[in-house]
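Assess this:
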Amino acid sequence: MAGDLDMARAALIARQGTGARYQAATAPARALELARLGTAYFARRLNGLEDGALGQASARAGWSRARVVASVALQAREIAQLLEAASGQRPEDWAETDLAALELAETLPPRALRHLFAHAAVHLEVVWRDLPADAWAETVQLSTGAVGIAQTPKLRAEVLWLGALDLANGARLRDLPKDLQAQGLPEH
């Protein structure tokens, strides 16, 4: 079965030509799928909020909905930038996800905050897609500690699904994928 999938993938790549780009076969496919589902779900929850509602309290104690959105967006930016640095695509000379960055991002106008989330999500997706196969076995130092690059999609998925719940506008625990329900989400 795996051989058939490898052959089918090779045939697809050959048909699409040299301009097409693909995720490495070593990438954690299910975790990436959970992150992608989480991105779409969070985006739906965010888009369901009126601009004025972003300043209201979230389900996370002491946080506004805007702060939740800013935190989710900045986590994607942090992972993307660190993965780019680890794979040699960018120098490792910034830290945009500290508390000051979060406090600043939280004050962005609603439209800018929504764009920050969308842009950071796309940026991270492109970085994951373009990571070389061997990079998935490396480790990066996130603001929360050292983590294997292969674990970043799972961490991202957890943040997205928790963030959607924190927006407190209709997200439900039963909406979470069974994988995440079974493992339980980390407390925050």
